[in-house]
Amino acid sequence: MASTISFTSKGTNLSHVRSGLGSVKEGFETVLKLSIDERPKVRRNAQDFFEKVFKSLRLAGNARKVSKWRNPNCNGVLPPGSMGFPLIGETLQLLIPSYSLDLHPFIKKRIHRYGPIFRSNLAGRPVIVSADPEFNYYILSQEGRSVEIWYLDTFSKLFRQQGESRTNVAGYVHKYLRGAFLSQIGSENLREKLLLHIQDMVNRTLCSWSNQESVEVKHSASLAVCDFTAKVLFGYDAEKSPDNLSETFTRFVEGLISFPLNIPRTAYRQCLQDRQKALSILKNVLTDRRNSVENYRGDVLDLLLNDMGKEKFLTEDFICLIMLGGLFASFESISTITTLLLKLFSAHPEVVQELEAEHEKILVSRHGSDSLSITWDEYKSMTFTHQVINETLRLGNVAPGLLRRAIKDVQFKGYTIPSGWTIMMVTSAQQVNPEVYKDPLVFNPWRWKDFDSITVSKNFTPFGGGTRQCVGAEYSRLTLSLFIHLLVTKYRWTKIKEGEIRRAPMLGFGDGIHFKFSEKE
């Protein structure tokens, strides 16, 4: 009855409906009268017809999705570029290794095609890539206003950069943590307390290397610096611990930039396992400290534990993540640049000769003194050493760029960067700019004696910039300087295995660079 009312209420003639139903009935009767041989043919034709219809609908839907992917919504004009394939974007192109200290081809080709500011999609996220120094300077000045620091999703998940207590916000949490780490590895504490300890660590490391037939420098330096940094920041004692934090953490770092495919035998799965193991080790360090009756040590862990009662964001789990992040930020660049230094020294003996002269002069000036240790004034006087470190940092470009996320639409040079998009500032592009650095891929430390401070500040940012400049910058420079001093005054070294420069996109050395070290007579 309801169906009849529905038809008639729309003015449909009931006799036409009955006629249509009769036609359907007649069609079924016709099919039933077909021979057995003819029925499958009709059935196949119908199936083919409907399959074509469904395929067409799917293609139309996919075409719409692809069009939306390639042409994202924007309240203005997006920079030129390509969003790549759906889901993966242009990630695979970025992960293809390059074997040069030059810019990664992914970036270099797109700068040539689109200009210094272009759009892309990496690891499923829309990204604006910038090699424009003006735009990069502007973005760094907008920290906490238009942008906030950001990480790749893999990194964010592994370090749990979510919620109000995440360390990438430009608010109180960031300022608190920055102050905590600067209290330990800032210039004042380096000068007053850590200078001798770092020198002792480097001395012991080189002595250990001299007793080995061959040393894979990147891995060995990572272990040494990781153990030392963990001891300085959190009181971790590698010699007494039943767990090997440095080995676990080094493997974890190697998997950070892997494709986030969480299935057995992938680098990402191993990264997750190593992360959990590293956190477990750090949790044990934290628990032991809380149960310890020893006097206050004054390191970062003591500071965090003492403030747990008054700072709501300081939970045990969050403190462990702070410890994990602090280790990552403090040691990776040191071990990479140390390895690159030795590789470049092998190809440029004239640089080693100049370094030997500078450091021999320091030893001669110390004649008659009872101290065998470097002083802060001597460290600051190492002019050519600092130039060598600058040149190595310029060429090294350990990471492909600095990441920020737009927290509101950003307008610049007629372009609009939508809120929520990631911004990758390729500051390394300026560091190999031939307009600033003549023969930019040539290792030439002497070039730095002609640069003024303004030129350097605009074109050289190996430790980031703005309010987010790396708190471990001076710590890294001091460690590298002491390494060079002890290396050129006390040791000889011979390259055993060449190794290769490899960007994928982080700077690495393939199967490693191996050296033989021996003490000078």
Strand tally, please? 12
CATH class of the largest domain, named: Mainly Alpha
Question: Unreliable segments (pLDDT under 50, ≥5 consecutive)?
Answer: 1-14, 16-25
Q: Overall 3D geometry? A: globular
Percent of residues in helical segments?
Answer: 40-55%
Strand content: 5-15%
Overview of the molecule:
The chain is α+β, with helices and mostly antiparallel strands. The protein folds into two domains: 2-65, no CATH class; 105-519, Cytochrome P450 (Cytochrome p450), CATH 1.10.630.10. Helix content is 55%, strand content 9%. It has helices spanning 2-9, 14-33, 38-70, 91-95, 105-114, 133-141, 153-158, 172-185, 187-210, 217-234, 245-254, 267-291, 300-306, 316-347, 349-365, 376-380, 383-396, 428-431, 453-459, 473-490; strands at residues 117-122, 125-130, 147-149, 215-216, 402-406, 410-412, 415-417, 422-425, 491-497, 502-503, 507-508, 514-519. The strands form four sheets. It has a five-stranded mixed beta sheet, with helices on both faces. It has a three-stranded antiparallel beta sheet with strand order 4-12-9. The longest helix is centred in the N-terminal third of the chain and has 33 residues, at 38-70. The chain is globular. The N and C termini lie far apart (110 Å). It is a single-pass membrane protein.
